[in-house]
Structure formats: C-alpha cells, structure tokens
C-alpha cells in the first residue's frame, strides 16, 4: 500500500497547512482560510482511512483463518475506495467546475444529442448529491440545445469530470426522420475548474465585447423580460461566455467574468506540459475526433476510445449511471 499512498508526503503537507493556520492574520482572509481548512480536513480523513485499513489488514493477517468472507469483501472495497482517492488528488480536483456541451455536426439530431448528454450528467449529479445549476442555454430550432452551460458543485466535482472533455458521438435511428434511417450525431463537452476568483489573470477591458439581451426560458415566470442576460466575448482568444440565470445584469456579468477568468487560466495551465492532459481544449466537433461513442443501433454499445472502457447497456449510462465509467477512466487515462 505504501507504493500507492505516500503517507509521509501527506503528513508533511498536513503539517505545513496547520502551520499556516497559526500565522498572524490567517483568519482575516475568510475565503483563503476556509480553503486551507477544507484541505486539512480532507488530508486528515485520507490519513485516518489509510491507518484504519492498515490496522484491519494487520489484524486480518494475524487472524486470517478466522476472517469471514464478508469482512474480506468490506476490506477489499475500502482499499479500492482509498486507491481511487489517489486519482483524485490533483491540485484542482476538489474544485467545483463548469460543464458545457455544444452540439456539433448533425443539425436537429445534434441538438437533441446535446440535451441527452445534459440529462445524463444531470441524472448523475442527482444520484450522487452534486448540486448543479444551468448558467446558460441556447435552444435548438426544433429540439434540444445548441449549447448548455452548467455549474457543478460538490466534492471532487472537477476531479470526477475532468476526463469527460472531448467529442461524444451518438449512433441511432433518428426519431426526427420519417424514413427511420440511422444517423450519427456529435456534441463536444468541455470541463473547466472554477478557479479561485483571485487567480492570476489580468483581462484588458479593451479586449472584451459585452452584449446584453433578453433571457430566454421555458415561458411564464422563468423568462426575464429585461435585458439582464450578458454575453462576453474575449476578442484575442475568441472565447464567448453567456450567462442568463440571474435577474440582475450586474450579477450575470460578474458570473460571466469569473467563468472567463477560469477559462483563460485553464488555457495558461494547458501550456504547461504536465497540465495539458487535464485542460485539453476541443476544437473539432466531427467524425474522427470523438473520445467516446454511444451506439444504440444496429447494436448497443458504449465505448471510450481512450481507455477502451465498454458497456453493452447505453440506456443505463444515458440515465446517469456513469460512475463506473468515470472511475475506470480516472485509473486508465493518463
């Protein structure tokens, strides 16, 4: 176990964090002190879990002939969970994140596929107690979404979703085709951590194009008839961020700026070779660029092209049962 879990390194990091809490004025910065204390709690739990499992192993070795099969299974599960934590120990893995989905080649089919992916992730969030909110969405002309942006809040939100970035491909009999022909649709997924608001990114106001417009929605009270929605275009990078979930234009602008800063900071990190895998951006949304295929016809299969994960039950996966897939990819994709 020592090869997987560097307890000495964790203990050193824990001591350094605790020393920070003793410095004068540490608690004057509420946000920073809260983040440090969250890290302390997480490391303390990881060390405690490790020591608890190690104690059980030592006891089991001493009493191996008396150990019940159920106890061995429980121990095996605990070790697997602890091992998974080592794949969620990246510097940014415990951050909240922004998940955005864009429809690609395929017209109405792709917009519907974009909505199906959004539902898949939303079902996953609901099943595992993650909070999410729709920051922005653009409806398709006939069905689904042209794009949708979600903010995801919860433990290791970015860590679990960081491998989802890329092009997702759907093959099915089209419900929009009267001739019941098979169609292939594409949508891209991008996942960006919600970095600390004071991340070291300077944005020149001259580089921004800011538009305001009416919020869109399902109708009734959900539609804001004032020009509260905000779209910010960062001209040098061509990044566009739209936010329309708040009734206040100022609040929407603040959220949009924070998302833009996170995206720009992620680009800077992507330039560093050791971070490239976590922050790879997706420029192409078409055939041949997919990271994963979801095939509903002529047979049923979900296959991830990077890890070779396969499932013969795409309906279950599209209903949000993606935890095994996420965990498998964490362990098998560099």
Describe it for me?
- By secondary structure, the protein is of the alpha+beta class.
- It has eight helices and eleven strands.
- It has helices spanning 7-21, 30-62, 69-86, 108-127, 157-161, 249-270, 314-318, 323-332; strands at 97-103, 131-139, 145-153, 166-173, 182-193, 208-213, 229-234, 239-243, 290-295, 301-304, 310-311.
- An eight-stranded mixed beta sheet has the order 2-3-1-5-4-9-10-11. It has a three-stranded antiparallel beta sheet with strand order 6-7-8, covered by helices on one side.
- A hairpin with a 5-residue loop joins strand 2 (131-139) and strand 3.
- Helix 1 (7-21) packs antiparallel against helix 2 (30-62) and helix 2 runs antiparallel to helix 3 (69-86).
- It is flat and about 65 Å long.
- The relative contact order is 0.11.
């Amino acid at each position: 176990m020592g090869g997987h879990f560097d307890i000495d390194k964790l203990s050193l990091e824990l001591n350094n964090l605790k020393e920070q809490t003793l410095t004068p004025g540490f608690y004057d910065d509420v946000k920073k002190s809260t983040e440090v204390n969250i890290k302390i709690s997480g490391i303390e739990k990881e060390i405690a879990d490790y020591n608890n499992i190690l104690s059980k192993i030592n006891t089991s070795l001493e009493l191996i002939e008396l150990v019940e099969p159920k106890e061995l299974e429980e121990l095996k599960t605990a070790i697997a969970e602890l091992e998974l934590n080592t794949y969620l120990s990246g510097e940014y893995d415990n951050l909240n994140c922004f998940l955005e989905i864009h429809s690609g080649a395929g017209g109405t089919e792709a917009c519907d596929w974009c909505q199906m992916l959004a539902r898949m992730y939303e079902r996953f969030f609901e099943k595992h107690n993650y909070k999410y909110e729709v920051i922005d969405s653009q409806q398709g002309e006939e069905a689904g979404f042209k794009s949708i942006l979600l903010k995801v809040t919860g433990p290791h939100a970015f860590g679990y979703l960081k491998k989802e970035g890329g092009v997702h491909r759907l093959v099915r009999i089209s419900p929009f085709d009267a001739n019941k022909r098979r169609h292939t649709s594409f949508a891209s997924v991008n996942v960006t951590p919600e970095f600390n608001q004071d991340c070291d990114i300077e944005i020149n106001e001259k580089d921004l194009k800011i538009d305001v417009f009416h919020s869109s929605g399902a109708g009734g009270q959900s539609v804001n008839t004032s020009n509260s929605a905000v779209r910010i275009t960062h001209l040098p990078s061509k990044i566009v961020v739209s936010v329309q979930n708040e009734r206040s234009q100022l609040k929407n602008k603040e959220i949009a700026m924070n998302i833009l800063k996170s995206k720009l900071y992620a680009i800077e990190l992507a330039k560093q070779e050791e971070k490239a895998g976590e922050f790879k951006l997706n420029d192409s949304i078409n055939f041949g660029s997919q990271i994963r295929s979801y095939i509903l016809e002529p047979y049923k299969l979900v296959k991830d092209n990077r890890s070779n994960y396969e499932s013969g039950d795409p309906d279950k996966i599209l209903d949000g049962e993606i935890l095994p897939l996420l965990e498998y990819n964490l362990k098998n994709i560099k």
